[in-house]
Amino acid sequence: MPSQPLLSAQRVQSAGGRWLYAVDQTSHSPRATAPHSHARGQLFGTDAGVLTVQTAEGRSVVPAGQAIWIPPGVEHGAETHGPFAGWAAYLAPDACEDLPEVPCTLSMSALLRAAISRAATWADDVLDPAQQRIAAVISDELRALRPVPGALPMPTDARLRKIAHALIADPSDTRRLQDWADWAAIAPRTLTRRFAGETGYAFEAWRHRLRMMCALERLAAGAPVTTIALDLGYDNVSAFIARFRATFGITPGRYAAGRCTTLTLTSSPTDKPTPPAC
């Protein structure tokens, strides 16, 4: 069942009122929103738990300490994993003119997070001078955020998208590239070339990255490391732990124990993505 929106539809879909609305919300139950769009731009993230966001361009898993930017009018769906302590800032269209025109995963500053939390307490549409100064800080900090490698780009070719959606539905599927090519009626060499060209990742690197995103979701929900490893198609727990450490710089056990409050996906020379278009 879809969750109630963080902000009323009247405000989300309106260019009127103040240029910035902000909300904080905590929930012990997972939240999920069906694909939708709104007139305002949205920056949102979590202080606890993991957030998954799906757009036409790709799939992003956003851990605590990062945020995702959705420009006005861009369709997106979102889902939380684990206890939810989240926040969002909604910007009027004319306040988004010099912000990225495509969805981006961004680093988050402590100053911006604190200012958004303060803005979430504002009740009136007319801001007093002190509130206007905080709003100005939010505007400046928004424009100072830097993109981080977090999204998993989706291919555009219909045959490749069919494969990508099948893997998202079942990340444990261990079919080899030749098998996928036969299934999608595409030549293996064409699959290899076009997948890398359209996503910035070799096919196997893309699949491993998807699995790592799924691992974050399941760790946030409290699943045991062994269960996650086997459910994601790894032959043994050691292989999963090694891949997780190579991707995030920490073991899944240490991450699940709360010994790392922020994560950044790393890239090896063999699976380096193309730079984000932000």
UniProtKB/TrEMBL annotation:
InterPro entries: AraC-bd, Homeodomain-like_sf, HTH_AraC, HTH_AraC-typ_CS, RmlC-like_jellyroll, RmlC_Cupin_sf, Tscrpt_reg_AraC-type_HTH. SUPFAM superfamilies: Homeodomain-like, RmlC-like cupins. This is HTH-type transcriptional regulator NimR. It comes from the Bacteria. The gene is nimR_4. It comes from Ralstonia flaminis. Keywords: Activator, DNA-binding, Transcription, Transcription regulation. Residues 161-258 form the HTH araC/xylS-type domain.
